[in-house]
Amino acid sequence: MNDTPPDSLIPYDEIVQEALRAVVGRVLGQVEATNGVLPGNHHFYITFKTGAPGVSIPPELKARFPDEMTIVLQNKFWDLAVSEDSFTVSLSFNQMPSKLDIPFSAITAFVDPAVDFGLQFQAMEGDEDFDETLPAENDPMERDIASRVTPSEDGSNVVSVDFGKKP
User: Fold this and answer.
1) Are 160 and 153 in contact (CB under 8 A)?
2) Exposed, middle or buried, 82 (CB in 10 Å: 0-12/13-18/19+)?
3) CA–CA distance, 117 with 149 (Å, rounded to integer)
4) For 96, which of 58, 74, 120, 165 is 20 to 30 Å away at the CA?
5) Are 161 and 122 in contact (CB under 8 A)?
6) pLDDT (mean) for 18-34
7) Residue 93 half-sphere exposure, CB side, CA atoms within 13 Å?
8) What residues have CB less than 8 Å from 157, skipping those under 6 apart?
C-alpha cells in the first residue's frame, strides 16, 4: 500500500494565503476609514518583497533593499489608500518623503506588536528563499521586527502558514 497522499487538485495553500492577506487589507482599510488614525497603541510592521510584480518604491529604496524590506506604520505615515489588491502609503526615510505602492501579494509578514499578533506568509511562487530581512528604518523605527515574526511556542498570536512543496 502506498503511504504517499495524493496531490491536491484544489490549491489550498494559495486560497489560505489569499485569505490571510485579505486580513491585512481589511485592517489597513479600517485605518484608512479613520483618516490614518491608529486605535490605541496599535501599529504595524509590514514586510514585503521589493521586486514583486506591482511594487513601486523609490529607486534609492530599491537599491538599499533589493529583495525585501520592512516598513512601520505608526506615527509618521500619510496618504494611506487601500484597494482590493494593494495599498499605497507615504512614509519618511531619512527625512525624505516617499510614496510606496504595495500589492498584498508581495507581503511576507504583518505584525501588530501592540497585541502580539502576526501573520507570516510563504514567499510568492518563483521567489528564491530569502535571508533575514533588514528593516527599512522609516522614521522612526523603535523595535526589531525579526523577533516578532518568527513562529513561537509561547502562546503568542503569531500565525505562520507554510505549505511545503512536494519534490
Assistant:
1) no
2) buried
3) 9
4) 120
5) yes
6) 95
7) 20
8) 115, 116, 117, 118
